[in-house]
Design a protein that fits this description.
Elements lengths: L5 E3 L15 H14 L7 H12 L7 E5 L6 E6 L7 H15 L8 E7 L5 H6 L1 H24 L4 E9 L5 E10 L1 E3 L5 E3 L7 H21 L10 H11 L5 E4 L6 H8 L13 E5 L2 E12 L5 E9 H9 L10 E5 L22 H9 L14 E9 L2 E7 L11 E4 L1
Antiparallel strand pairs: 1-3, 2-3, 2-14, 4-6, 4-9, 5-6, 5-13, 7-8, 10-11, 11-12, 14-15, 15-16
Helix pairs in contact: 1-2, 5-6
């Protein structure tokens, strides 16, 4: 059994990594079927699947493994996860495991958190051409960074890029969060660290905008762009209006170690669009969540936290536009991080084969081994599994008929 894809069911908490007041699945259970009768927008297949997975995650529909103490019989229920990229619980588990794995594959030099943002005037065009233009966003932002560091310092950097499509209020806000090595590998395949934190923002913005707009024009000329422009002149006039405001690029100060930057950037990686910890109210047809208003700041310069209240018809339409496209890679690696095989392992932080197990995740968050009986202090053993299908409950018992200790067989009992 793949235990790392499961979670203990605890009545007082909705999952293992903290207490939450509300679950997104609860709101979907109450109003999704009603919403589907008269949806605000056409519901894509991947959106249907995301909702179905979220509603079934950590329920008997996906199966429950039962572990029991051989002495006193105390049991632990382990609920299976849906593993959908849009599920708020599964995406957090995925982030924790990803962060532990990736930090061993990074150069042992400072890294910087970088954000590239597309102007909102391009939002309607991106929505109509999501796959190719979001691909372009990730590619061109990484290319701009690589070109600048290679031109300025003669180094090939490593870049980890993560696509985000939502802003604080869950409106469309297309941008990439990137982990950039503040240095890289030179022609002699030795690692060099960049001194200081100087960044030529004007060059980077111009480079990013230039590469992205060139790709846009190429898509237009090749007929690959879905649009309503009458001709190329109108299209280029539109681009000129977009360029009346600077394109936004933000770089944080260098962080000294991979572990430090991963702890910081991890929350931006594989997490879902809306964290369940930010849900403040579910009352009838209404749901509310917290968000940070970066336009209004307090005395200390911190963004003021506000609450947004939405009817389920508006909330579902707003949230589901951020369901990832099928087969779209949200996390990508560029520069030396795209192909580490030709470099010495000594250049990296190490631990590249680290895999966090389900039990280790539980222990790191709760401080307790989930399979140790509290009364007898012995390890609980697997007993059986329970699953539900078509309103029927099935119990699966393991049959030890195979000499392979890693093989598992089940007998279905209605």
């Amino acid at each position: 059994r793949c235990m790392c894809e499961c979670a203990i069911h605890t009545p007082e908490k909705h999952n293992w990594f903290g207490e939450k007041k509300y679950r997104l699945a609860t709101f979907f259970d109450s109003w999704w079927d009603e919403y589907c009768k008269h949806p605000k927008h056409f519901i894509q297949p991947e959106q249907y699947k995301a909702v179905k997975d979220i509603r079934s995650c950590r329920t008997a529909a996906l199966g429950i493994d039962i572990y029991s103490c051989p002495n006193c019989g105390e049991t632990t229920e382990v609920y299976h996860s849906c593993k959908n990229r849009f599920c708020p619980t599964c995406s957090w588990n995925d982030t924790v495991k990803w962060a532990e794995k990736v930090k061993g594959n990074m150069l042992n030099i400072p890294h910087r958190h970088v954000v590239f943002t597309i102007p909102h005037q391009l939002n309607s065009l991106i929505i109509r051409n999501k796959f190719i233009l979001l691909n372009t966003l990730m590619q061109t932002s990484a290319e701009a960074l690589k070109d600048w560091i290679n031109y300025k310092f003669n180094l090939q950097p490593g870049i980890i890029s993560v696509l985000h499509t939502a802003g604080e209020q869950k409106e469309n806000h297309f941008h990439t969060h990137m982990i950039l090595s503040w240095g890289g590998v030179d022609k002699n395949k030795t690692v060099q660290q960049i001194k200081g934190k100087y960044v030529n923002y004007d060059y980077l913005k111009s480079k990013f905008r230039g590469i992205f707009e060139k790709r846009l024009v190429d898509f237009y000329n090749s007929g690959r762009l879905d649009h309503d422009f009458k001709d190329i002149i109108e299209f280029k006039c539109f681009l000129n209006r977009v360029n009346e405001k600077n394109w936004i690029i933000h770089l944080e100060d260098p962080m000294q170690t991979p572990s430090e930057v991963i702890r910081y950037i991890g929350r931006y990686s594989k997490r879902a669009c809306l964290s369940e910890y930010k849900i403040t109210r579910i009352e009838g047809e209404i749901i509310a969540f917290r968000y940070k208003d970066y336009r209004n700041k307090d005395y200390f310069g911190h963004p003021i936290e506000k609450e947004r209240v939405l009817h389920y018809r508006d909330f579902f339409a707003l949230l589901l536009q951020h369901v990832p496209l099928p087969n779209f890679r949200l996390v990508r690696y560029y520069g030396i991080y795209s192909n580490r095989g030709h470099l010495s392992k000594e250049l990296f932080s190490g631990g590249n084969d680290v895999t966090i197990t389900w039990r280790e995740l539980q222990q790191s968050e709760t401080g307790q081994d989930p399979l140790i009986c509290k009364k007898c202090n012995v390890i609980k053993s697997y007993s059986h599994s329970i699953a539900q299908s078509n309103n029927e409950t099935y119990i699966y018992y393991r049959l030890d008929l195979n000499p392979d200790p890693h093989a598992t067989f089940f007998q279905k009992v209605a």
